[in-house]
Amino acid sequence: MPHTEIDLILVDGRSVRFDRRLHGGERVAVYPEFERFDISPLHRLRPKPLRRPRFVADVHLGTLARFLRLLGFDTRYSNGLDDAELAAITAGEKRILLTRDVGLLKRKAVVRGQWLRSRDPEEQVAEIIEALHLQRAFRPFTRCMTCNGGLVAIARGDVADLVPPRVYRRFRSFKQCKECRRVYWRGTHFVRLQRLVERYRQSPAATNAAQ
């Protein structure tokens, strides 16, 4: 388990820090990040949870980055970033590093990170949502899935030359990315993506939080 997923370590029932040396025979218990419990009297090993979680995904997680942007999460991604650059981004911009490479999370500069067990992008999203309790932070259809820029409403008349004629004739509502200028509308793809968002809202973590 990478250190970025550990919030509390107990050795023989006592809270300790990462530098505690073991001599053999101790009973060690390791706990993940606590989002809804106050453990302030103990040695909390993780930094304070981010008010608005932001991510940076490693070079193998392009599809995952698109799904997180769909849910409204600020997610940096580039297939040209090396391990040192990823570590620098997560530290400098206070982003949670997402990776399947547990070795990357062992870098000292990385203090926020999530090791993904699944290879399937949709399952990876579910892993992140449940691990970080993100259902209430969803802001779907507010970010560009391609470049991560914010989406804003745009007048129908302003997209006449930006979308196919059949799309312009059929639809009345459009949004545009403030960065790459890509235009979005609620076509047949929107229904599929909306179902995906609702499926993530109904994950086991959401059910447990509501009880």
Description of the molecule:
With 211 residues, this protein is an alpha/beta fold. Among the domains are: 1-46, no CATH class; 55-140, 3-Layer(aba) Sandwich (Rossmann fold), CATH 3.40.50. The chain is 27% helix and 16% strand. The chain is built from 6 helices and 10 strands. It has helices spanning 62-70, 83-92, 121-132, 165-170, 188-201, 204-210; strands at residues 8-11, 14-16, 28-31, 55-57, 75-77, 96-99, 113-115, 151-154, 174-177, 183-184. It has a 4-stranded parallel beta sheet with strand order 5-4-6-7, with helices on both faces. Strand 4 (55-57), helix 1 and strand 5 form a beta-alpha-beta unit. Helix 1 crosses helix 3 (121-132). It is elongated and about 75 Å long. The chain starts with 7 loop residues before the first strand and ends with a helix. Residues 35-39 and 205-211 have low confidence and may be disordered.
What's the short version?
The chain is an alpha/beta fold. The chain has six helices and ten strands, in the order ββββαβαββαβαββαα.
Provide the β-strand percentage band: 15-25%
Helix and strand sequence: EEEEHEHEEHEHEEHH
User: What name does the CATH topology of the domain at 55-140 carry?
Assistant: Rossmann fold
The total of beta strands comes to 10
Features:
211 residues, alpha/beta, Rossmann fold, 3-stranded antiparallel sheet, 6 helices, 27% helix, 16% strand, elongated
